[in-house]
Each structure stands twice: as structure tokens, then as C-alpha cells.
Amino acid sequence: VQLQASGGGLVEPGGSLKLSCAASGIRFSIYLMAWYRQAPGNQRELVADITSGGNTNYANSVKGRFTISRDNAKNLVYLQMNSLKPEDTAVYYCNARIVTSNFWGQGTEVTVSS
To answer: What strands lie across the sheet with 17-24, from one edge to the other?
Structure first.
């Protein structure tokens, strides 16, 4: 199983980034897919998740700014991040889970700074 996250980088406050996570080795369409983040000194926290049917859930801190989506035909999950703030700076991790399995990707770093 592999979850390959990409798209991180350095962006100025107010800017945008789009993260992608490519999944392999799992039956992607049945998994709940999620993005988590971990800032230095903080615990890992849920940013957003999306069910196999496309229902979404967001942390209050990102509602209205971030959008999670998935392409079941391509085994991809995305996180569009707009109006980025310095407090969004973190390593972002892709997660795939069902009742019996839970997988993590390696993370992609997002830095929001002027």
C-alpha cells in the first residue's frame, strides 16, 4: 500500500495550494480518505475527510477555505487550499481507512509565510 502526497511548498499568506495524494495497493473507492496536518510541537489533527460516496467533513479552522475532493477512477484525493494563513503551516498527511485498515502517506510540507 502506498499513499504518495505531493503539492506542498512555500506560499504567501492569502495564497493557494493544491495537494494531491495518489493511492495504490488498496481498493480506493471503498476507503474514507482524509487529510491530516501536524505543525511543529502540535498533535496531528484532522483537516478534512471524504467518504466513498463523496460526503465531506472539515475542521472548523479550514471551513470555507479548503475543499477536499476525490477521483475514484484515478485513485486520487485532493485538497484545494485557498486564503492560506500562517497557522496553516504544517506537514500534511494523506490517510486512507476503513474499519479493518488504516494507512498513512509520508506527508508533504506546507509553509505559509511572507
So the answer is: 2-6, 17-24, 76-81, 66-71
- Backbone Cα Rg of the chain: 13
Q: How far apart are CA 57 and CA 69, in angstroms?
A: 11
Identify any residues that bridge with 23 across adjacent strands, giving them in sequence order: 3
- Please count the CA atoms within 13 angstroms of the CA of 6 that sit on its side-chain side: 5
Q: How far apart are CA 13 and CA 25, in angstroms?
A: 36
Residue type, 22: A
Reported as a single tens digit per residue, the pLDDT across 12-52 is 999 999 999 999 999 999 999 999 999 999 999 999 999 99
